[in-house]
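Model it.
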Amino acid sequence: MLPGVYPAVKSDGTPYFRASLTFRSKHISLGSFLTEAAANRAYRQGKKILTGKSVQIDDHASFPASLPLDKLISLLNFRDRSLYFKTPIYLRNNYFEYYLSKEMILKFDIDDLFFYSSHKIQRRGNHLFVSEYGMQTGILTRYGIKAYAVAGKDYVFANGDETDYRYANILIKNAYYGVEQLGEGPAASFKTRIHINGNYIVGVYDTAEKAAIAYNKAVDLAKDAGLQRNYSQNYLESLSAREYAEIYTDLPVSKDYLAYLENLPKEYLSTTAP
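Modeled.
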């Protein structure tokens, strides 16, 4: 058997070959391959990367095809930064890069290093997520951004780089369900809408918190009218129960929305509706 190669058999009886090496007293698996020769090439390339400087992190054109990209990045970081991660992370000064591909390199704050060193980022279209507790969790949820949020409308990348996920670069404009910010700065107002059969405007308010509470009130009114929908509601941890109740009671709701609730189509109503 060639150096660094170990034969193995799949559950269906198909043979394959694993490659691995040891560097700085750490045993590193390089992956599985269909042939002994391919596994040996990965082994030789892995040793070459770890013991030489022919491959550099910023020279993507020099990345060898004999190794999977995620493994190659892990080896380069181990060589250059003396830390080995199972995920394709490369440490920079005060931040790190996560390589989804040669062309798509995400940037994160060091504070997120522990999380992403143990959670693999996956991509489906433009949606980036990790598997956590048996569920697929979008990486934007770590910033308090809702799953339905729209880039450029509900949140923006301050420097225009949509691969830069450092906290200072992500500005949240609309943090609550059903709320849209209108304008910028001190003159900004906040529109509340609820989707039933199309979008209905609940009202426009001077703070995001009032708009969020107005959305909750609109949901409650819809349920009271017999609407068969499960809506997520906004949680405002900065307000006491008393403060919330006072704002909730005083908030006006669009007369058009109230009129619509009085005439809900029968197919939207629950059997327990009054």
